[in-house]
Amino acid sequence: MPFVNITIDGIRMQVPQDTTVLEAAKKANIKIPTLCHLELHNRETVNQVASCRICVVEVAGRRNLAPACCTKVTNNMEITTHSPRVLTARRTNLQLLLSNHPKDCLNCAASGNCELQDLSEQIHTDVNAYEGANSKFDIETSSQSIVRDLNKCIRCRRCETACNEMQTVGVLSGVGRGFDMVVGTALHKPLTETQCVFCGQCVKVCPTGALMGKSHIKEVWKAICDPDKIVVVQTAPAVRAALGEEFGLEPGHGVTGKMVAALRRLGFNYVFDTNFAADLTIVEEASEFLHRLQHGGRLPMLTSCCPAWVKFFEHQFQDLLDVPSSCKSPQEMFGAICKTYWAQKMNIDPAKIIVVSIMPCLSKKYEASRKELSGSGLQNVDYVLSTRELARMLKEAGLDFLGLPDGQFDDPLGYSTGGADIFAVSGGVLEAALRMAAEAITGKELEIVDFEEVRGLRGLRHAHVEIAGKEVNVAIACGLGNARRLLEEVRAGKSNYHLIEIMACPGGCIGGGGQPFCDSKKEADTIAKRAAAIYAEDAGKEIRSSQKNPYIQQLYKEFLGEPYGEKAHLLLHTHYTTREKL
């Protein structure tokens, strides 16, 4: 690729000719402030609308200031990034944004994680420099997952890029004109009347708190304090790989023991693990896969653990509703078993049990409200808290999280294998299923349970796994845009896969919409470190294949009967719904 010579703040350098001024400045270790600019997952998706004009610079010979984020360098270009004219323009542009923004930062859930707030501090601007009319939008709380306060929208369109380009869901776009223009849904419909899948990737990229996860902290505190309720909590595997970040730890620190101890201190009656149900999910899902494989069933089979992905195909691929596994997610399986099998063993009225889930995912909040998932007659999961919400509860309670001694999960619903841990990472569900399927097909115990060929964090991957001389073709997608590409292959009859895993979020659940916020420029590295923590948990387990979990074996013996049997179908399987494609 040809290089060009440029001068930036007096520094002469050579850069590729397709480089933007912003990228060139980074190479020269010059920081240009940005707000609307966003790079997702190693530049796979870039928001480059230049709407905020915070990154403007002077280019010699040009009359107007240029936005650094989308201005390409040219040979012999001379750039100044902090002249008086540039600094004045940036301050004015920021003041204009703030003039139509609420000033109630102390009441904002994004306070402390707000890029607009950080930028105001960096530029030292007068937030009241311009007075005038303000936008007036009702706060939208129709869903269980996401709250929209468009009064805080700065029209950066980062959420639109995440929704339309990365996830290809197509819910958000610019609506209205002039002063009334805002990024929202068609006809300003509530999210529950759109094809939103509640993945939360829009929340992750919103710089101001216009989009936030819906909080259920108050309801959980109320349940904990109710003496007539037995409040149990389950924790997803991805949470333990990220929770420490909220308390100053570097990404990649597993905090399972401290998390368990903290949950007990909060007052939960029993602390269980979603991993138990992940092992159960593998037994059911692998059994279903083997049944299809051996009896000429519908292939490929797609995993069904991710509720955002499930709602995506219900809207977008209604002709393929027989392709995904009918298994409920581990969260829902746990709730069903807790309010039936465990309630009977403990002689507790299921109506008195409150199941709280700690999840990396905002779509799990939506999933808990799906009526068809409650096979026992009760809602399987009562409340879902994100990783961020759990951190807020711990801070609110004044717990010294890092100083807590490690705790242990309660049995039997707290015991799990390494195969359950890796559910948190893209490819992990598929790998755990292969561990069981391989032993079932060969009748032999695996000496090596690691299927390295399905691991990785690329958005779309393919692998060939040999089991007893038979080649099993598998595919893995994380991110719904990648899922769409795979499903279009299946729809066109071009797929030769036997088993496909799909997760809505980058890297899998470790990149979920409810995980701790991180700098988008560091997200790929953060996700990789979280993945390493998960694989370390798996490698450290005594038992690493889900079907060997002794408490899962006991569950089938005492209560469920045969895997993929009648009672298992009643409690652990579901059906899918054709939803309107808008």
Structural account:
There is one protein chain. The protein is α/β, with parallel strands linked by helices and 582 residues long. It folds into three domains: 3-82, Ubiquitin-like (UB roll), CATH 3.10.20; 97-213, 2-Layer Sandwich (Alpha-Beta Plaits), CATH 3.30.70.20; 217-572, 3-Layer(aba) Sandwich (Rossmann fold). Helices cover 34% and strands 15% of the residues. The protein has 19 helices and 19 strands. It has helices spanning 21-27, 84-99, 115-123, 158-166, 201-205, 217-224, 237-240, 256-266, 274-294, 307-316, 330-346, 363-368, 387-396, 418-421, 428-442, 480-491, 523-539, 550-560, 566-572, and strands at 3-8, 11-16, 38-40, 45-47, 56-59, 66-67, 77-80, 146-148, 173-175, 182-184, 211-213, 230-235, 270-273, 301-302, 353-359, 383-386, 460-467, 470-478, 499-503. Strands 2-1-7-5-6 form a five-stranded mixed sheet, sandwiched between helices. A hairpin with a 6-residue loop joins strand 9 (173-175) and strand 10 (182-184). Helix 9 packs across helix 11 and helix 9 (274-294) packs across helix 15. It is globular. The protein starts with a strand and ends in a 10-residue tail after the last helix. The mean pLDDT is 93.
Parts with pLDDT < 50 across at least 5 consecutive residues: none
Mean pLDDT: 93
**Portion in strands:** 5-15%
Structural class: alpha/beta
CATH-defined topology of the largest domain: Rossmann fold
Spatial order of strands in the largest sheet: 2-1-7-5-6
The 3D shape can be described as globular
Distinct helical segment count: 19
- Percentage of helical residues? 25-40%
C-alpha Rg, in Å?
25 Å
- What is the level-2 CATH architecture name of the largest domain? 3-Layer(aba) Sandwich
Count structural domains: 3
Spatial gap, N to C terminus: 43 Å
Could you describe the largest sheet, including whether it forms a barrel?
5 strands, mixed
CATH class of the largest domain: Alpha Beta
User: What is the number of E strands?
Assistant: 19
